[in-house]
Amino acid sequence: MSKQTLDRILQSQGFGTRKGCRQLIANGDMTISGETVTDYRASHETNGLEFTIFGEPWIYREHVYIALNKPAGFECSRKTSHHPGVLTLLPEQFTWRDVQPVGRLDHDTTGLLLMSDDGPFIHAQSSPKRHVPKFYIATTHDPVTPELIAHLLSGVKLHDEPAPLAAMSCRALDAHRLEIVLEQGKYHQVKRMLAAAGNHCSALQRSAIGLLTLESLELKEGEWRYLDEAQRALLAPAAL
Ligand code: URA
Predict the structure, then answer these.
(1) Which single residue of 28, 97, 187, 220 could bond 14 by disulfide (Cβ 3.0 to 4.6 Å)?
(2) Ligand 1 pocket test: which of 191, 192, 207, 214 has the largest number of ligand atoms within 8 Å of its C-beta?
(3) 136 near 207, Cβ under 8 Å?
(4) Which of 106, 117, 160, 228 is catalytic?
Protein backbone atom coordinates (compact mmCIF):
# COMPACT_ATOMS: atom_id res chain seq x y z
CA MET A 1 0.00 0.00 0.00
CA SER A 2 1.36 3.43 -0.85
CA LYS A 3 -0.60 6.65 -0.56
CA GLN A 4 0.49 9.89 -2.20
CA THR A 5 -0.99 13.32 -2.70
CA LEU A 6 -2.58 13.90 -6.10
CA ASP A 7 0.01 16.46 -7.22
CA ARG A 8 2.83 14.00 -6.45
CA ILE A 9 0.97 11.24 -8.27
CA LEU A 10 0.58 13.32 -11.43
CA GLN A 11 4.18 14.49 -11.25
CA SER A 12 5.48 10.93 -10.83
CA GLN A 13 3.62 9.93 -14.00
CA GLY A 14 5.33 12.64 -16.04
CA PHE A 15 2.70 15.36 -16.25
CA GLY A 16 5.11 18.18 -15.49
CA THR A 17 6.39 20.07 -12.50
CA ARG A 18 4.68 19.88 -9.10
CA LYS A 19 3.37 23.40 -9.64
CA GLY A 20 2.09 22.54 -13.10
CA CYS A 21 0.40 19.38 -11.79
CA ARG A 22 -1.30 21.38 -9.04
CA GLN A 23 -2.64 23.71 -11.71
CA LEU A 24 -3.94 20.82 -13.83
CA ILE A 25 -5.79 19.46 -10.81
CA ALA A 26 -7.19 22.88 -9.90
CA ASN A 27 -8.35 23.26 -13.53
CA GLY A 28 -10.42 20.08 -13.17
CA ASP A 29 -8.33 18.10 -15.69
CA MET A 30 -8.07 14.97 -13.49
CA THR A 31 -10.81 12.53 -12.58
CA ILE A 32 -10.75 9.42 -10.39
CA SER A 33 -13.62 6.92 -10.57
CA GLY A 34 -15.61 9.35 -12.69
CA GLU A 35 -15.30 12.24 -10.20
CA THR A 36 -13.33 15.40 -10.92
CA VAL A 37 -10.73 15.91 -8.20
CA THR A 38 -9.68 19.47 -7.46
CA ASP A 39 -7.79 19.28 -4.16
CA TYR A 40 -4.16 18.44 -4.97
CA ARG A 41 -3.45 17.79 -1.27
CA ALA A 42 -5.85 14.86 -1.16
CA SER A 43 -4.06 11.53 -0.76
CA HIS A 44 -4.84 8.48 -2.82
CA GLU A 45 -3.66 4.89 -2.89
CA THR A 46 -1.38 4.51 -5.92
CA ASN A 47 -1.51 0.73 -6.15
CA GLY A 48 -3.90 -0.13 -8.99
CA LEU A 49 -4.89 3.52 -9.44
CA GLU A 50 -6.57 4.41 -12.68
CA PHE A 51 -7.50 7.98 -13.48
CA THR A 52 -8.21 10.22 -16.43
CA ILE A 53 -6.21 13.26 -17.36
CA PHE A 54 -7.49 15.62 -20.07
CA GLY A 55 -10.22 13.01 -20.56
CA GLU A 56 -7.71 10.24 -21.39
CA PRO A 57 -7.40 7.12 -19.22
CA TRP A 58 -4.09 6.59 -17.43
CA ILE A 59 -2.87 3.71 -15.26
CA TYR A 60 -0.49 4.59 -12.42
CA ARG A 61 2.87 2.85 -12.80
CA GLU A 62 5.66 3.27 -10.30
CA HIS A 63 8.15 2.49 -13.08
CA VAL A 64 7.76 1.86 -16.75
CA TYR A 65 9.45 -0.88 -18.77
CA ILE A 66 9.12 -0.31 -22.48
CA ALA A 67 10.10 -2.17 -25.63
CA LEU A 68 10.51 -0.04 -28.74
CA ASN A 69 11.02 -1.29 -32.27
CA LYS A 70 13.61 1.33 -33.09
CA PRO A 71 13.60 2.64 -36.65
CA ALA A 72 16.78 3.83 -38.36
CA GLY A 73 17.56 7.53 -38.06
CA PHE A 74 17.13 7.95 -34.30
CA GLU A 75 19.84 8.36 -31.68
CA CYS A 76 19.89 6.74 -28.26
CA SER A 77 22.12 9.37 -26.64
CA ARG A 78 20.68 11.99 -24.34
CA LYS A 79 22.31 14.85 -26.17
CA THR A 80 21.55 14.01 -29.75
CA SER A 81 23.75 15.49 -32.45
CA HIS A 82 22.56 14.65 -35.97
CA HIS A 83 19.29 12.77 -35.59
CA PRO A 84 16.21 12.99 -33.38
CA GLY A 85 16.37 11.04 -30.12
CA VAL A 86 14.45 7.81 -29.51
CA LEU A 87 12.44 9.57 -26.78
CA THR A 88 10.71 11.61 -29.46
CA LEU A 89 9.00 8.34 -30.47
CA LEU A 90 7.33 8.04 -27.05
CA PRO A 91 4.69 10.17 -25.29
CA GLU A 92 6.25 13.25 -23.69
CA GLN A 93 5.36 11.98 -20.20
CA PHE A 94 8.23 9.51 -20.56
CA THR A 95 10.74 12.31 -21.05
CA TRP A 96 9.40 14.06 -17.95
CA ARG A 97 9.78 10.91 -15.88
CA ASP A 98 13.32 10.40 -17.13
CA VAL A 99 12.86 7.25 -19.16
CA GLN A 100 16.18 6.22 -20.71
CA PRO A 101 17.34 3.64 -23.23
CA VAL A 102 18.85 0.51 -21.69
CA GLY A 103 22.18 0.43 -23.52
CA ARG A 104 22.47 1.92 -26.97
CA LEU A 105 21.83 1.09 -30.57
CA ASP A 106 23.55 3.05 -33.32
CA HIS A 107 21.42 5.61 -35.14
CA ASP A 108 21.20 3.33 -38.18
CA THR A 109 20.52 0.12 -36.20
CA THR A 110 16.89 -0.98 -35.98
CA GLY A 111 15.03 -3.37 -33.68
CA LEU A 112 14.50 -4.15 -30.05
CA LEU A 113 15.40 -1.35 -27.64
CA LEU A 114 14.42 -1.49 -23.97
CA MET A 115 13.66 1.73 -22.13
CA SER A 116 12.88 2.39 -18.50
CA ASP A 117 12.93 4.86 -15.62
CA ASP A 118 13.92 2.16 -13.12
CA GLY A 119 17.61 2.80 -12.36
CA PRO A 120 18.44 -0.63 -10.83
CA PHE A 121 16.72 -2.37 -13.78
CA ILE A 122 18.72 -0.31 -16.30
CA HIS A 123 21.91 -0.99 -14.41
CA ALA A 124 21.30 -4.73 -14.02
CA GLN A 125 20.23 -5.14 -17.61
CA SER A 126 23.27 -3.31 -18.99
CA SER A 127 25.79 -4.94 -16.67
CA PRO A 128 28.31 -7.11 -18.52
CA LYS A 129 28.32 -9.43 -15.48
CA ARG A 130 24.81 -10.57 -16.35
CA HIS A 131 25.87 -12.08 -19.69
CA VAL A 132 22.46 -11.38 -21.23
CA PRO A 133 22.68 -12.54 -24.86
CA LYS A 134 21.74 -9.96 -27.48
CA PHE A 135 20.70 -11.29 -30.87
CA TYR A 136 21.43 -9.31 -34.02
CA ILE A 137 20.67 -9.86 -37.68
CA ALA A 138 23.42 -8.35 -39.78
CA THR A 139 23.22 -7.82 -43.52
CA THR A 140 26.66 -8.11 -45.04
CA HIS A 141 28.18 -6.46 -48.08
CA ASP A 142 30.14 -9.57 -49.09
CA PRO A 143 28.65 -13.08 -48.96
CA VAL A 144 28.52 -14.91 -45.64
CA THR A 145 31.05 -17.75 -45.72
CA PRO A 146 31.79 -20.63 -43.32
CA GLU A 147 35.19 -18.96 -42.72
CA LEU A 148 33.51 -15.72 -41.65
CA ILE A 149 31.25 -17.59 -39.21
CA ALA A 150 34.23 -19.54 -37.84
CA HIS A 151 36.22 -16.33 -37.43
CA LEU A 152 33.41 -14.57 -35.51
CA LEU A 153 32.97 -17.64 -33.28
CA SER A 154 36.65 -18.05 -32.51
CA GLY A 155 37.14 -14.34 -31.77
CA VAL A 156 38.32 -11.24 -33.60
CA LYS A 157 40.77 -8.69 -32.35
CA LEU A 158 39.48 -5.11 -32.20
CA HIS A 159 42.16 -2.46 -31.96
CA ASP A 160 41.09 -1.00 -28.58
CA GLU A 161 40.19 -4.29 -26.91
CA PRO A 162 42.86 -6.21 -24.99
CA ALA A 163 41.47 -9.65 -25.82
CA PRO A 164 39.72 -10.96 -28.94
CA LEU A 165 35.91 -10.79 -28.82
CA ALA A 166 33.97 -13.86 -29.85
CA ALA A 167 30.30 -14.29 -30.72
CA MET A 168 28.31 -16.55 -28.35
CA SER A 169 26.78 -18.04 -31.46
CA CYS A 170 26.64 -17.20 -35.12
CA ARG A 171 24.86 -18.71 -38.11
CA ALA A 172 24.16 -17.84 -41.72
CA LEU A 173 20.54 -16.95 -42.49
CA ASP A 174 21.08 -16.58 -46.21
CA ALA A 175 23.85 -15.50 -48.61
CA HIS A 176 24.09 -11.98 -47.18
CA ARG A 177 22.57 -12.21 -43.71
CA LEU A 178 23.78 -13.75 -40.49
CA GLU A 179 22.50 -13.98 -36.94
CA ILE A 180 25.15 -13.10 -34.39
CA VAL A 181 24.69 -13.35 -30.62
CA LEU A 182 26.82 -11.25 -28.28
CA GLU A 183 27.03 -11.04 -24.53
CA GLN A 184 28.94 -7.75 -24.47
CA GLY A 185 27.72 -4.41 -25.76
CA LYS A 186 30.89 -2.68 -26.91
CA TYR A 187 30.76 0.39 -29.11
CA HIS A 188 29.74 -0.59 -32.69
CA GLN A 189 30.61 -4.15 -31.74
CA VAL A 190 28.87 -6.07 -34.51
CA LYS A 191 30.01 -3.67 -37.22
CA ARG A 192 33.58 -3.65 -35.95
CA MET A 193 33.69 -7.43 -35.57
CA LEU A 194 32.43 -7.91 -39.12
CA ALA A 195 34.95 -5.37 -40.44
CA ALA A 196 37.77 -7.02 -38.50
CA ALA A 197 36.71 -10.37 -39.97
CA GLY A 198 37.02 -8.93 -43.48
CA ASN A 199 33.38 -8.16 -44.35
CA HIS A 200 31.17 -5.07 -43.97
CA CYS A 201 27.86 -4.67 -42.14
CA SER A 202 25.43 -2.80 -44.35
CA ALA A 203 22.36 -3.08 -42.08
CA LEU A 204 21.81 -4.22 -38.52
CA GLN A 205 18.74 -5.19 -36.51
CA ARG A 206 18.54 -6.35 -32.90
CA SER A 207 16.07 -9.21 -32.98
CA ALA A 208 16.06 -10.39 -29.34
CA ILE A 209 17.43 -9.81 -25.85
CA GLY A 210 17.61 -12.95 -23.74
CA LEU A 211 14.45 -14.87 -24.58
CA LEU A 212 12.43 -11.78 -25.45
CA THR A 213 12.08 -11.60 -29.22
CA LEU A 214 11.05 -8.62 -31.30
CA GLU A 215 8.77 -10.90 -33.28
CA SER A 216 6.79 -11.93 -30.17
CA LEU A 217 6.13 -8.25 -29.39
CA GLU A 218 4.46 -7.63 -32.77
CA LEU A 219 5.68 -4.06 -33.03
CA LYS A 220 5.99 -2.23 -36.31
CA GLU A 221 9.03 0.05 -36.64
CA GLY A 222 8.52 3.08 -34.41
CA GLU A 223 5.93 1.32 -32.23
CA TRP A 224 6.38 0.61 -28.54
CA ARG A 225 4.63 -1.25 -25.73
CA TYR A 226 4.84 -1.72 -21.98
CA LEU A 227 6.54 -4.95 -20.92
CA ASP A 228 4.66 -6.96 -18.33
CA GLU A 229 6.34 -9.04 -15.64
CA ALA A 230 6.31 -12.23 -17.69
CA GLN A 231 8.00 -10.46 -20.59
CA ARG A 232 10.58 -8.93 -18.25
CA ALA A 233 11.32 -12.36 -16.81
CA LEU A 234 12.39 -13.43 -20.32
CA LEU A 235 15.23 -10.91 -20.09
CA ALA A 236 16.62 -12.44 -16.90
CA PRO A 237 19.51 -14.87 -17.23
CA ALA A 238 17.81 -17.19 -14.76
CA ALA A 239 15.32 -17.94 -17.51
CA LEU A 240 18.09 -18.92 -19.94
N1 URA B 1 26.66 -3.48 -32.64
C2 URA B 1 26.78 -2.44 -33.50
O3 URA B 1 27.73 -2.37 -34.26
N4 URA B 1 25.82 -1.51 -33.48
C5 URA B 1 24.73 -1.55 -32.67
O6 URA B 1 23.87 -0.66 -32.73
C7 URA B 1 24.63 -2.64 -31.80
C8 URA B 1 25.61 -3.60 -31.79
Answers:
(1) 97
(2) 191
(3) yes
(4) 106
Is 106 among the residues known to form the active site? yes
Mutating to test ligand 1, I would choose from 70, 77, 83, 109 the residue with most ligand atoms within 8 A of its C-beta, which is 109
Task: Report how far residue 235's alpha carbon sits from residue 211's, in angstroms, rounded to the nearest whole number.
Answer: 6
Where does a domain end: 44, 59, 74? 59
Nearest Cα to 99, choosing from 87, 111, 113, 85? 87
pTM above 0.85, yes or no: yes
| Residues 117-139: tens digit of each pLDDT | 999 999 988 887 888 899 999 99
- The pLDDT tens digits for 68-83 are 999 999 999 877 789 9
- Same domain? 80 vs 185: no
Residue type (1 letter), 43: S
Closest CA to 152 of 165, 140, 138, 135: 165
Q: Which domain holds residue 143?
A: 133-209
| Nearest residue (CA) to ligand 1, atom 4 | 188
Closest CA to 66 of 111, 117, 9: 117
Asked if residue 110 lies in contact with residue 69, where contact means CB atoms within 8 angstroms, the answer is: yes
Q: Are 38 and 25 in contact (CB under 8 A)?
A: yes
Residue 137 and residue 235 in one domain: no
CB 124 within 8 A of CB 117: no
